[in-house]
Amino acid sequence: MNNLLKFISIFFLFTLGGSCKTRNKDLPNIIIIYTDDLGYGDVAPFAPKNEITPNLAKLADEGVTLTNFYVASSVCSPSRASLLTGSYPVRVGIPRVLAPHGIPWAEDIWRNGLNPKEETLAELLKEVGYKTTLIGKWHLGHAKEQLPTKHGFDNFFGIPYSNDMIPSKNQVYPPLPLIENEEIIEENPDQRFFTNRFTKKAIEFISNNTNSPFFILLTHPLPHVPLSTSPEFENKTLEGIYNDVIHEIDWSVGQIRKKLQEFELEKNTILIFTSDNGPWLAYQTHAGSAGILREGKNTAFDGGHKVPFLISWPNQLPKGKKLDGLVTNMDLLPTLVAWAGGNKPRFEIDGLSLRDYLEGTSDHSLRKEFLYFHNENLRGIRDERYKLLLPHRYQKPAGNSIDPGQQDRFVIDSIPLSLFDLWEDPGERNDIAEDLPEKVKELQQRMEKEYQKIISGKRPSGIYEGPEPPTGKLWIENY
Questions:
Q1: At what angle are helices 332-340 and 76-85 packed, to 10 degrees?
Q2: Which one of 38, 75, 121, 213 is separated from 300 by 20 to 30 angstroms, measured CA to CA?
Q3: Residues 6 or more apart from 387 whose CB is under 8 A from it?
Q4: Which UniProt keywords apply (predicted)?
Q5: Which of the residues in the chain have pLDDT under 70?
Q6: What percent of the residues of the chain are helix, what percent strand, and what percent coil, each to the nearest 5?
Q7: From the candidates 20, 101, 139, 392, which is the catalytic residue?
Q8: Is the pTM of this model over 0.90?
Q9: Longest CA span, the chain
């Protein structure tokens, strides 16, 4: 009888206990803070902003700064698709910004979302025991079956698309919903408290998951217009509302680090700070700065694609190091999954694991080229030093907006086939295509080869097949 009881005890220990997730203390926590429309010249150490962004300046001192970090698109939805899938947006069927129904420029794009068959960063981390949450802006499909909870996130607290897609800007937009998991809990929430509320939600998640490795994707809707801050940050910098907004985002970084320290989690937490794309320059005083880079959001120039990037992991990464190698947001998925001991996606991706480069065991980034797209259109390529742009037309602000915070009118400019030496000319001012015809030819060949690899492996987006919601509604009744 005693042997039988012993057998039963061992049986339950292995069958029940083995199915329970307990914290693997070797697995790092992962927090990505993804801002919206933040420019390369907006925060320390990329610009002289130490007083406005002291927490980011400190993060740079204690972590690794990447000076050549690129996002795969210079607009919102495609950039986020690349972050989560490790792929160029055109490969995963999200090359354009998504929007609710009823907006003429969106046509049927409102039905699109990230394909549920894609293996996201959140899903790959869940497979090895991570608790996952997305807090803030999603913008990868707003039907219920397209929300973050369908893409590997245990929880979602935030808005389904950009904070300017609101009835006060265009009456065709439905009320902006604040969603918890899959339920609308508020409509048109007070945006002044977005940064504060989303930060507190992230802190709450940390507090509730100290015994499990966790992944937090904190996607601040700001500094995308319309700009606002909580009352305690209004006019705090005395340098305009944009800097007040940046100052509050910096406060958010400080609060999260403080909570990690409180639970003694900071040393084994990978903390990343970056942006989805460059500044929306058409909003002038309510927009950020690309620094010395050319143009901004919604262009193929580096002002739209090259963004600030800081990473800290005291247990594993060097302190106060600056790396100049080429890295993209697509590379984060394979790198983070490798650190977490997870499996590679079944589908082909474009990201490369940069684990050795970031840890300092390799002096060179594995990434040797990066393709520039605008929507579905190929615009150019860069290698480690040179950038080739194909002839194309592009929009830029006219520069004569009268009212602060109002969108400037656009003018159309064009660029011929152009070659730039980004080491000597990061602002893309001096076209040297005629001086280096062999380099132009080489990059054209490499660009076509890489482009064909992507196009031949294109996968569809996810499509909402339900009826169109009535005017003024995000979802149909009882959906």
A1: 30
A2: 121
A3: 302, 380, 381, 419, 420, 422, 428
A4: Calcium, Hydrolase, Metal-binding
A5: 1-25, 401-402, 477-479
A6: 30, 20, 50
A7: 139
A8: yes
A9: 90
The residue behind tokens 């590679």 is 344
Pick from 335, 373, 345: nearest CA to 455: 373
Q: By the 8 A CB rule, do 464 and 143 touch?
A: yes
Domain 26-367: which topology? Answer: Alkaline Phosphatase, subunit A (3.40.720)
Start-to-end Cα distance in the chain: 56
**β partners of residue 183:** 180
Please tell me the distance from the alpha carbon of residue 62 to that of residue 213, in angstroms, as a whole number: 22
Cis peptide bond upstream of 314, omega within 30: no
Distances (CA, A) of 343 to 79, 120, 132, 347, 457: 23, 11, 17, 12, 20
Domain ranges of the chain: 26-367, 374-456
DSSP state of 174: P
Contact between residue 98 and residue 161 where contact means Cβ atoms under 8 Å apart: yes
Confidence (pLDDT) at 479:
52
Q: Which two tokens stand for residue 177?
A: 């919903």
Strand segments, DSSP code E, in 143-266 are 155-159, 177-180, 183-187, 214-219
Question: What are the phi and psi torsion angles at 474 (to 5°)?
Answer: -80, -45
Q: How far apart are CA 428 and CA 387, in angstroms?
A: 9
DSSP 330: G
Give the model confidence (pLDDT) of 391-423 as tens digits.
999 999 888 766 777 888 889 999 999 999 999
Run of H or E including 273:
strand 269-275
**Structurally, what CATH architecture does the domain formed by 374-456 represent?**
2-Layer Sandwich (3.30)
User: What are the tokens at 241?
Assistant: 């509302």
Paired tokens of 231? 């009352």
3-class DSSP state of 357: helix
Paired tokens of 346: 């079944």
pLDDT tens for residues 204-257?
Answer: 999 999 999 999 999 999 999 999 999 999 999 999 999 999 999 999 999 999
Q: Which of 323, 326, 345 is nearest to 334 (CA)?
A: 345
Reported residue count of the chain is 479
Tokens linked to 391: 């002839």
E strands within 304-461? Answer: 309-312, 321-323, 327-328, 370-374, 377-382, 386-389, 392-397, 410-415, 418-421
- The residue annotated as part of the active site, out of 76, 101, 224, 392, is 76
Q: Which amino acid is at 456?
A: S
